[in-house]
Amino acid sequence: MDTVDGMRVFVRVAQRSGFAAAARELRRSPAAVTKQIAALEARVGARLLERTTRRVALTEAGRLYLERCLECLQAFDDADAAVSELSVAPKGSLRISAPIDLLSHLPALIARYARAHPHVTVDLRLSNRPVDLVHEGFDLALRAAGTLDGRYVARPIADMPLGVFASPAYLREHGRPRRPAELARHRALVFVEPRPLETLVFERRGKQTRVKVTPFVLSNSGDALRDLALAGIGVLTGPSFLARRAVDAGRLEVLLTEWTMRPSVKLWALYPHRRFLPAKVRLFIELLRETFAGDPWQG
């Protein structure tokens, strides 16, 4: 079996949640697609897809394999594109959707991109909701998530560890939570988009515990919630980069450091189609990966 071709078939089945739909797009018979997936599962030694009469869903191994397949296939496509586009300067409009709280991290990156590619007009729209790339006309979306549904091509850009934070003043007044369950009695500052982060999952030594918090303030802006935490209004749960400067300055404290929050969250770059990825999109993704490599939330 051609491993690369098998990966492409697997990705298409995962993205379309079905063998028949994938077969139509690939212009192959459903039997051929089913046989190729079976051969791929035999080669890796794990079931990648759960089949029902109505739909196909990824297993846990399948989700991990999908992520790795997307990275490998993108590397192949990037190699081809890098050669074919040597004499082609990127141009046109690059329409990007990004989470609101990445605002402070994007202008410098976009400035670098604009200086390197002056014939591209960048259209940046900030929103925490999952946009429809095709119907809304976006070339690229940045999204913070633990896992994705496979609808679009996804490139992992950076890890976004979650944490729990409170100000010294708040902790003096309300006490310091020593266990996750104690967060239930504290004033929670809660993200509201794309859905309220009201149920928190913590893990330690392989065991998980769930805590439902009561929102005291809700917002779609992590910066606003961070500022409320700084003011001693409540306990913030969110991406660590929001609180980094305040923690370094001693204005916020990290709580429950012996616990890890689940699911782990990554920053992803999403785009609609793998084939014929425009140079303007590919070069922006390369700059994202370069900028966010290593410790992406510094400064």
Topology:
Blueprint: H1 3-16, H2 19-26, H3 30-44, E1 49-51, E2 56-58, H4 60-84, E3 92-98, H5 107-116, E4 120-126, E5 140-145, E6 153-159, E7 162-166, H6 168-174, E8 188-191, E9 199-204, E10 207-212, E11 215-219, H7 222-230, E12 235-239, H8 240-248, E13 253-255, E14 260-262, E15 266-271, H9 279-291
Parallel strand pairs: 3-4, 3-5, 8-11, 8-12
Antiparallel strand pairs: 1-2, 5-15, 6-15, 7-12, 7-13, 9-10, 9-14
Helix pairs in contact: 1-2, 1-3, 1-4, 2-3
Provide the CATH architecture of the largest domain.
3-Layer(aba) Sandwich
**Total count of helical runs of at least 4 residues:** 9
Q: Fill in the CATH topology of the largest domain.
A: D-Maltodextrin-Binding Protein, domain 2
In one word, what is the shape?
A: globular
| Helix content range | 25-40%
Q: How many β-strand stretches?
A: 15
Strand content: 25-35%
- Rg over C-alpha atoms, rounded to the nearest angstrom: 22 Å
Poorly predicted parts: none
The SS-based structural class is: alpha/beta
The separation of the N and C termini measures: 48 Å
